[in-house]
Amino acid sequence: MIITTKRSNLRYFLDILLTALGWLFFIYLFFAGIVAILSGGMQGPHIPLVLPEFLTSAQSVISYVIIALINANLLIGWAVYNQFRFTGKDRRKPPQPLTPLQLQKSFALSPALFDDVQNADVMVIYHEENNMIGIIDIINESPESDTDLKNIPKTAKKITVPI
C-alpha cells in the first residue's frame, strides 16, 4: 500500500527554485575558486614548487583528508563498539499476529461489519476528525480500473459506524 500526500503547486515550485538557486550558487563559487587559483589571486607561502598556484589548494585538500580520516576512524570505532555490544541481541522481533477478535475490538467494529470488511474486494474508509472510523464504503465487486475509485459500482454498501 502506498500512501501519498499531494503537495501544493507553490511548495513544489519553491522546492525547485531553491534547489536551482543552490546549484547555481555552488557552480559560481566552484568556478570563481578555479579562476582565482589559475589567475594567481590565491597565493600560498612563497616556497619554490613546480606549481606554486596549487599550494593553497593542496593544503586545503590535505586538511580535508585528515578530517575525513578522523571521521572515518570515529565511525568505524563506533560500529565496532556496537557490534561487540549488541552481537546476538535481537530487539527487533516482530509483534505477535493479532487475532480476528483483537482486530475487531481495535477498530471498534461489530462482528457482522467485521465479516463484511474481511470479505470486501474493495473498501473506502473515511475517518472523522478524532481519527475514528466514520464511514466505510464496502464494494463487493472490483471496479474495472483499480486506480480509478471515482466510479464506485452501484452495489456498494455504505455503512456508517456508530461512535
Automatic annotation (TrEMBL):
One biological process term in Gene Ontology: cell adhesion involved in single-species biofilm formation
Segments crossing the lipid bilayer: 12-41, 61-81
UniProt keyword list: Membrane, Transmembrane, Transmembrane helix
A Pfam family this chain is assigned to: PgaD
Designated name of the protein: Poly-beta-1,6-N-acetyl-D-glucosamine biosynthesis protein PgaD
